[in-house]
Design brief:
Layout (H helix, E strand, L loop, with lengths): L3 H18 L4 E3 L6 E5 L8 E4 L5 E5 L3 E6 L8 E4 L6 E2 L5 E2 L6 E7 L5 E7 L4 E7 L7 E2 L5 H7 L10 E4 L5 E6 L7 E5 L13 E9 L8 E9 L10 E9 L18 E4 L3 E2 L4 E2 L2 E8 L8 E7 L5 E7 H10 L24 H9 L17 E3 L3 E10 L2 E8 L4 E6 L4 E7 L10 E5 L4 E5 L3 E6 L10 H6 L6 E2 L4 E2 L22 H10 L12 E4 L5 E6 L6 E6 L2 E5 L5 E6 L8 E9 L2 E12 L10 H15 L1
GO cellular component, one term: plasma membrane
Subcellular location: Membrane
Keywords: Disulfide bond, Glycoprotein, Membrane, Signal
Length: 635
């Protein structure tokens, strides 16, 4: 058995190592990477940020107006677009705007067609919806024929701001939107030709995402809703929230008269599990979800962000295939035999037998839980408190996650089948704030991050910041960056990358000329603080030696006359304090970083003592000091 102190040491070392790997490798502020910021008009958080086809144009939806922001010309005043609801215009003559028509925008959806938006607004009593063509000089609400069914059925419904929604764009379009809280109408609502509402219940539910799964046969298309439910068990060891996924069929019309009329007959609910059974870690508060669509509907992935009671965050990944398998095969909770209950979507839900409808009305939760893909644990679990998640899929078979922190920062995370890697932390704001939304323009690599009153554009393909060598570019493990033989570039086709391991040994494949030039230059030609300059200091003076820290995954140390002093990689600089300059401090100081076997000399300093010959490090004073120490130790 190991001694107690050695066991404690090993546990501490393991903890420190794990903590280091969970740190973002690099930190980027506006000093390190280009960031543009624009103030958001008004005094309210934006309802929605819509990234246009052009990489530098963004639509910010406020309570009353749309604002077009242009980052190519940040000094230009945002173009304010008034929403002229058709119902608010008195035809006249002459046409006038009714003064009592006061609607707040609550829903904005970017259509597949360029410059087309679908939006809704409410006055607290009723809701209006329309289409807008932003390419027009004075865009107005367009009464499209296929939206008339939605407009008619949603009129008496009040949309709560921030609720997730899904628009099924078809010959007869349907709008799905949730209502969170503890009121009677909490759940999934469908507006269109067939108005469908949630069944009455007394549960408190808060919805974070809707996923529309369209299939070739319209009858089989489904909507999946992700939400957290307040736990009724008030026990000491019970979680406050329970995470769920619900499924409804898009063709559901509700039941016949008297039994589930106009309510879902196809809704089934299943608990989500996110955690590690070995360590008994469990994450129960569902915070946000992001979807990566696949060519095959079964392979669509849902990235779910969780939190636990200790403030730790985790991300678990579920496939629609696994979710659908639970709804197809699991017994219903509280009822053992329901063999005649339909699991698949039916053509006409109004013709389901009354006894089956009563069973549906009573039992809707599955006995089995939905577990992450391949029954895996969280792909990311650490002490950070994340608030939003956005996922960019299919970057060289490596997905990139953008996670907002509760202080306003953004983590960029590379994820593949076997692991995750926190590439960098961006700090888009100059102060602590709450991130309202995250949006990415994939082709340009521009990320848009909004707070209540500010919108920031930053470049996530800032490859030059990783360094000017092949090794540093590969160590970054950034799917947006690769080494092309001369520099780290966002043009990744044909470039050197090792996203899985960050193995910089692949750089040996560069041409002999480039390799010889690199060896000749050495990896020490980067970041010299005082460039091997000689500094002469008076006796007993204090002095700091500074060395820049770039990668938080590297180990940093100062080397002087055979001694080695380590630094913390969490700080922005590796500092060495000369507390009282003496002959023993004379000589060369070298700051070295090591990361996965790659060694760099970052700074070199030569210290001399004023009034003494450089390089002499022994004197009678040193011997007197040593004798004093020996005498004290013997006394």
């Amino acid at each position: 058995m190991l001694p107690l102190f050695l066991t404690a040491y090993l546990l501490c070392l393991r903890s420190l190592t794990a903590t280091t790997t969970l740190l973002p490798r690099m930190t980027f502020t506006e000093k390190e990477t280009a960031m543009k910021r624009l103030p958001l008009p008004g005094h309210h958080a934006p309802i929605e940020i819509v990234v246009e086809g052009e990489p530098d144009t963004v639509i910010a939806a406020g309570p009353k107006h749309l604002n077009s922001l242009n980052f190519q010309n940040p000094q230009k005043t945002p173009v304010e677009i008034h929403v002229l609801w058709t119902e608010c215009i008195d035809p006249g003559p002459p046409p006038t705007l009714r003064a009592d028509c006061n609607y707040n925008i609550t829903l904005v959806h970017k259509r597949e067609e360029a410059n087309q938006l679908f939006l809704c607004g409410t006055n607290g009593k009723e809701t209006l919806c329309c289409d807008m063509n932003l390419s027009e000089q004075s865009p107005g609400c367009l009464p499209l024929e296929k939206m008339e069914k939605i407009k008619g059925s949603i009129r008496k419904f009040v949309i709560k701001e921030g609720e997730p929604f899904a628009l099924l764009d078809s010959p007869e379009s349907d709008l799905y939107i949730t209502y969170s809280g503890s009121q009677d109408n909490v759940g999934i609502h469908k507006f269109g030709k067939n108005r469908v509402t949630p069944a009455r219940h007394n549960k408190e539910q808060h919805y974070v995402g809707l996923v529309l799964s369209r299939q070739r046969e319209p009858l089989k298309s489904r909507v999946y809703a992700f939400y957290r439910e307040k736990n009724r068990d008030r026990g000491l060891y019970s979680e406050m929230w329970i995470p769920f996924v619900a499924r409804v069929c898009t063709g559901d019309r509700g039941g016949p008269k008297n039994i589930l009329q106009y309510s879902w007959t196809s809704q089934m609910n299943a608990r989500l599990f996110c955690g590690d059974t070995d360590s008994r870690q469990h994450f129960s508060e569902l915070v946000d979800v992001a979807t990566v669509q696949a060519d095959q509907w079964q392979d669509t992935r849902v990235y779910a962000l969780f939190r636990n009671e200790w403030g730790r965050s985790a991300v678990c990944v579920y496939t629609i295939r696994d979710i659908d398998h639970i709804f197809t095969t699991s017994p219903f909770k509280g009822k053992d035999v329901q063999s005649n209950r339909p699991r698949e979507c039916v053509e006409d839900s109004t013709k389901i037998q009354p006894d089956v409808l009563r069973m549906i009305e009573t039992y809707s939760e599955m006995e089995q839980w939905v577990r992450p893909e391949k029954n895996s644990g969280p792909l990311l679990s650490n002490h950070h408190s994340y608030t939003h998640i956005h996922v960019h899929g299919s970057r060289s078979n490596h997905n990139v996650l953008f996670l907002s922190l509760n202080n306003g920062g953004i983590h960029k995370v590379m994820q593949n089948k076997s692991q995750t890697f926190i590439i960098a932390e961006y700090q888009p704001f100059n102060h602590r704030t709450h991130v309202v939304s995250i949006g990415l323009h994939p082709s340009s690599g521009k990320l848009y991050v909004s707070s209540r009153n500010e919108l920031v554009q930053l470049n996530v393909a800032n490859c030059a910041q990783y360094g000017d060598s092949c090794e540093l570019c590969v160590l970054a493990r950034d799917p947006y960056c690769g080494w092309n033989g001369t520099h780290c570039t966002p043009e990744t086709d044909g470039t050197l990358q090792d996203l899985t391991h960050g193995n910089h040994a692949i750089c040996l494949t560069v041409s002999k000329v480039q390799l010889h030039e690199k060896v000749f230059r050495g990896s020490t030609a980067t970041h010299a603080d005082e460039a091997k300059g000689s500094v002469t200091l008076p006796p007993e003076s204090k002095h700091f030696l500074r060395c820049p820290v770039s990668s938080h995954h590297a180990q940093y140390s100062w080397r002087h006359l055979g001694s080695n002093t380590s630094c913390s990689s969490r700080e922005q600089q590796c500092l060495l304090l000369i507390d009282s300059m003496g002959p023993e401090h004379v000589g060369a100081y070298t700051c070295v970083s090591e990361e996965m076997g790659h060694r760099r000399v970052l700074a070199q300093h030569q210290l001399q003592l004023e009034g003494r010959a450089a390089g002499r490090s022994s004197s009678p004073l040193i011997w007197l000091c040593l004798m004093a120490v020996v005498i004290k130790s013997l006394s």
